[in-house]
Specification:
globular; single chain; six-stranded parallel sheet; 13% strand; 178 residues; alpha/beta
Length: 178
């Protein structure tokens, strides 16, 4: 585990963001199957990054977002505008952040307050082209709702490093999704 070490998790978060936006796994798979440039990756420049949880890890992720010339929104329960501004982010409500972000990334601890924080209603309020990144704790996102949102195209993709049950069971529906 990398608990308490912001560097590896921040780097992994950005690895997942870039893999999704530039469609690296899909393009790699296609190339190996004999195809060529089957999709167009999305640039991050000018897009909006929503950071949920702006502790040391969320702050690091936010600063990297600024270096990609992204607009950075931030929300957590007790976040102040001044604290958000200190890492180049703009304080938003949770609803604003979900509705406006092209990439939503979660950096919170699991607690009674954060369990199921991102459920069906929150996923439905995100842009259809948005990506959700979770390197925090699986149960912060309602996994059943996430599987449904990905299947239905409610959101465009998810980059996950954490699950409700780890290791992820072989027959888990997430394994069947692109």
């Amino acid at each position: 585990g990398t608990a308490g070490l912001p560097y590896p998790t921040a780097e992994l978060t950005w690895g997942l963001i870039l893999a999704l936006s530039r469609r690296i796994p899909a393009e790699d798979r296609a190339t190996r199957e004999g195809h060529w440039q089957v999709s167009l990756g999305l640039g991050l420049n000018g897009k909006t990054l929503g950071v949920i949880g702006l502790g040391s890890l969320g702050s690091r992720v936010a600063r990297i977002g600024k270096s990609f010339d992204m607009h950075v929104l931030a929300w957590s329960q007790n976040l102040t505008a001044a604290r958000a501004a200190s890492v180049g982010a703009t304080l938003a409500t949770r609803d604003e952040l979900l509705a406006r972000s092209d990439v939503v990334t979660i950096h919170l601890v699991l607690s009674a307050r954060t369990r199921g924080l991102i459920g069906p209603k929150e996923l439905a309020s995100m842009k259809r082209a948005a990506h959700l990144i979770n390197t925090s704790r699986g149960p912060i996102v309602d996994e059943t709702a996430l599987v449904r949102a990905l299947r239905d195209g409610t959101i465009a993709g998810a980059g996950l490093d954490v699950y409700d049950e780890e290791p992820l069971p072989l027959d888990h529906p997430l394994r069947q999704l692109p």
